[in-house]
Amino acid sequence: MKRVFGCAAFGLRDCVWRPDQGCTQKDLYLADVVLPQTHFGKMLTDSQAKEERTHTGLYWPPEARVRAGDFLRRVPVPYAWRALVEAGDRMVRWKAGNGVSFPLSKIIASHIVNVLNQTGEDLSEEGNSIIVAIPNNLDEFGQEQLIGELCRGLSFSKKGQVTLVWRPIAAALAWLDKVEGDFIPKKMTEEDHIHVLYLGPDAVEITTFKLKVKPDKNGFLHVLPLRERPKFLPTINGMDWAGRVIEETFDWPDDGDFWQAFTRFPEVWAALADFSWNRGELPRAWSIGNAWTLWDPPHDLYKRALSVPPGPCTTLRKICQNSCPLSSQTNTKIEESVNEILKKEVRKLSKKHSGGRLYGMILCGPLMPNGIPPWLESELETLANRGLRFDGPLDEPKLGRLWISPNSEEAVAKGSSIYGDRLIKGIPTYLDTMPQISILAHYLGGYKWIPLLDAEEVLGGETYERKIKRWFQLNQGQLKLNVYLSKGSPRKLVSACEDPDDPRLVADGELSPCYARLVREVVRRCRSLEKVQKLSFFRSENLGSRYGLAFAKALYKTDEEEHEDELDDSQSKSLDQPFRKAVFNFPSTPNRSMPLDVVVRMRPASGLAQVEIIPEDTNFLKGRKVFLDYSTMRGTSKLPRLRRGWPFIREILVDPNDTVLNEWSSLIDRFEKVRVENPAYTRIVDKVRRMHGLKELVQIARMDIYAQVLDQNGQPCTDYGRKCIQRLSLKFEQDFISLLEKETVNNSMKEKLLVRATWMYASAPRSIIQYAREIIIQDCRQRIWNWAVEAGSRAFTSIGDFKLLFNAITRRALREAL
Would you tell me which of 74, 215, 493, 583 could form a disulfide with 55, CB atoms 3.0–4.6 Å apart? Predict the structure, then answer.
């Protein structure tokens, strides 16, 4: 018989849901793990950790003392969870001192294993499944590390014996298990939803799930929560909240005094959850400095806790700083109380998905009161207006009603077990949104971000697979393939990498494209970064100067400097690095350049995606498979520079003031009025062409630059100039069409307009561009074919047109060579 155990272990009131036996229960003492002094020692958990004297906060013995600036061997479990979430895709370790450190995932896993083992069950028995709840923000890298450590700690041989599930999803499944039969799927809309509010020591998670109807394999309909990937970390957490209560209630105690109250006394945690404590256990002995006093907290500690601002706890952060600092920067200037902040969050929830029905609200977590908390009570009317009911026993799930989960983590632990049970039975569980991960590929002489995983809705517990064909290549004789990865939508990623000739590299949005083009020309004429830096123009603080200096640094960077940047990035531990660099290692080299397919497989909340490379010809792999080696992954802010061939692509410099178009405006007026039949028409058309060829002297950085009227896109710089070009293009279009419509075809005039109008580059009229295509396709030996090829080289912009042009030129060249 297959048995599924659901576990919720975040460091407070941890529990396990056991089949047919219900939930284990623990008290409000904060769980911690005591680390050994060597890498091979045993981590102490639960009662062993409580009995261990190391870093208890007492003044005596010396090893019990806790001081900010020292390394800490006693790790609060909620702190480890929070640090693991903040670590994202980095490996972060807890430093215990003397060069000894441990991965956060191993510390957390040791605690979870202890919680599971305390059930007395034989968890390794064949058919048993362990489902562990995780925070809603835990990165795939952290998931992967945690699964591995749990399997080692439980002596499981297979990774699949431990499954993870999102904490709020588990709570939602516990609710759905009781109410799913009451839904009428046909009456549901796209905006129908539920809210899950979780109050825990590591995070206060406030989550909204849309409800979707999906059939199972037998056609039966199921209501599933849809999880969307969270965009931000929760700003409030229970450990900082408890720490702030201790600081403000007990007059900012010293580090050791604080640590005892935080880790050894349950009353503060009970106060946050509005639980009464056992007066028979009070007062407690409290070591203050080298003396003793009595710990006897005030009766109104819950009210005081609600009035505390929810910023980070200074004392807690200082004590843990050297061992494992938290990297998120919470706003310390918040003056509003926890009560007011939570009220605002509930108010925001009441406005979500206004077009749908609110089917329920779940309150759960070890710090959630058993009754309606004050921060929710004031918003009941607002929620009632959305259809939420508050009648009857609130500790029982019912469709459309508030559910306050009893017994702390029971909803999460039970929901985790339900998730595993549904997986075994093949029943749909929930819908998840895949992370958006993109990989950099060469495309049309540049770079392009290709989605490995897109933000698609997939069923929880099922493997998603995506195949990307022939976007990559392993060169002949190459053993490694370097790749660059990034999270987020490809549309929001920078499409061009460090190509010094690319104007998008460092362009400032407030700098006009024409002026930026001139600045780039000055930089290129200098021919070195040193000469650029010597010019007074680039030593000022205006936009053009800053832009030019940044462009110069990118343009003249040496290969050695680029390599140094890469080393700096690989050693960086900053979460701010936007990209990741990784390596595919091949067992042998191909004897030719080998096209590659990429296959990505991933399951929600199950660790890192499996990325496999499949060559067009797999013989050189000698029967082995090639996967992305995540151990080689490094953070980087730099993408590879494009290596251009010869000749360099040159920009056409344009007068920022459109002086020529302003001075020749009368010619444009005359051209618009003259008819094709007029004897003066040819002369005016020739003058328009001459106007396009004029150059204007522009001075910048004490350099004389002759700027043209139009750039390669057929565009001037000012709004007035663009209107002039639009007028000219329209006139050419009208005149050319009138020639086509005449019974007597005037080929010489059509040819003249073909040549003259295409000097407007990409602003040339469509009808004339089409005429050029038709002549090029004919592949004739007449002079008009040469003119059409030259016209196309000026005015073509599409890939299809360029293919047509180069194929025609190639055919002519080969024929003449024969």
Answer: 74
